[in-house]
## 1
Amino acid sequence: MKETTASSAKTPNYDRIAFLYDGLAHLVFGGQLINAQRDLLVHIPLNATILWIGGGTGKIFSDLKSRNPQSITYLEASIQMLKRAQQEAEKYNMTSSVVFRHGTEA
């Protein structure tokens, strides 16, 4: 059996499904995915500096804005998801406080 490590494991590529990811997530999980993220927002201090790993399409920006983050580094493995997240941040006038980075925690 081949052993894999975090650095050698292949990162899933969600680029091909980015356009329907939110709909699929809602179909499979209902509102549980976004609700789980929302539930954790209360633990983020106001005016915090945030590293958000694997944020997907950025649907959380509507709720994240209430925490008034000083800065956010938004790390996403999928280029297409990252583009969608940038569009979400623009909707809520948050692009000046967000640095979008393509990659993984590895």
## 2
Amino acid sequence: MRRFVELERSAPGIHRVKRVVMAAKPPMGSLLVAAPAGKTDAELLQSVIVGDRWMSADRLDNAPVERRGRVPIGLREILWSGHVFNLGGYAKANREVLLRVRNSVKVQLSQDDLKDMDRFVDPTVTAILRTLKGEQVSMDAPLLRFYTPKIEMERRYRICWTMMETQRIHHDFVNRLNLYYDEAWIPTPWYCQVFRDSGVKIPLHPMPLGVNTQVFRPMDGGQFPSCELVTTPNAGRFERPHGFTFFTVFQPTFRKNTPFLAEAFEAAFASDPDAALVLGTTAHGTWANAEVKRQVREKARNARIYVLSGDFLEQDLARFYNASQAFVAASMGEGWNLPMCEAGACGKPVIVPRNTSHLDLVDDSCGFPYDMDGTATVPGSERICGWYDQMPFSRLGKNAKEGLVAAMRTVKGSYQAALDRGARFMDRLRRDYTWDRSADRVLDRMAKLWG
């Protein structure tokens, strides 16, 4: 057994010891930190951590008032923390915003990747990011962490730019924000309110993400590579998808709701040989694709559904979006839904649930949102993410299925009208949700902090 202390935040960069705990190791997601050797429990309970330095609470309390809880904020410098070298949405967003912000301010990158996957990143971008890792900002530079909240003990102003996919935010996620950060940035106003209602006390600021409109744009000549057909009597055949094609891109987890999408597509197009659905799975490992195919075959037999798997570069994705006629999703929750925005930037009609971040991005004037059937927890979701444990997701049931079927049929049956909505969504993205606009928002907020 080892000694740990549970901390509570009393001011920016200052944490007081709340209690002493004996444990073999900290529970997953706990707010416990190892207790220093050589101090009794009584001494620990009278201690504070200022930045990463331990001192007695009396020493801090007797310091001049103007020196307590004050965190100087360095001018025009940022210590940036997060993933940069993988294919996930966080890494893509970090890269895109970093490349723009570093043109205006000095940035030091604290890379959070477990391993580099820079073979998927442009070599020029990789070289820039590695240069940023070698930069040195002052101890007064604010920390901007663009990922999930972790224990941050440095005595500097700390910002967490983060998101979640549930209808309520897990108490541990909330506690980490309240304890270790001075403010949080959330991509959409709807989710800002969810974070507030879940108990986040620090200031929250809507900070939308973006899309690269130089890569994702309408183009002629896009086509799919050979994909595996997993339904119909020809299941197992590899061919280029043809006809009126719906496309979606996802990591194959329960949240993306592949069985529901397959069931709805079967209901909509089982007797329509012209319609096809391509499931683009950014999965690592054959087991994930096998599971996706099993789920599809349980729900669909006659409608044409393909699986396209692999590691897709942005240029690949842009080609796939342009090869399709529409984007469709059946997610139980999204913090932003970057694939939807990328498809929309290519001018494609988007069909998405009327839930979570979609509520701030897509309405009936520029897309095809369909209604939910309330909320529900998902047994076993904590195995994917500990912060999903007992948290409600959107529930897609009978009403959602009817709405999705109707939306897909409407898009296919009245495609010119659907393209008109797609054009309005594309205009909205190009006006309000580019990576340039995201970087401008970051710099505007930082300018207010720098004063």
## 3
Amino acid sequence: NAAVYYSMQNSGQTCISVERVYVEAPVYDEFVQKVTEKVAALRQGRTSGPGTVEVGSMTFPPQLDTVD
């Protein structure tokens, strides 16, 4: 939960957002599966009111290069 939340918080545009996660080999596959499922379930886009999306627009153009 924390890996997904803190990597996506404020569309990843915070100075403390997660950029890398080091995962021990025995739990790697399960970790990737869970993160993938959680990220796939996030609602993204233009908000139509409070609580309608989890990931909004990027507001800092250089961040697009970082994400890309």
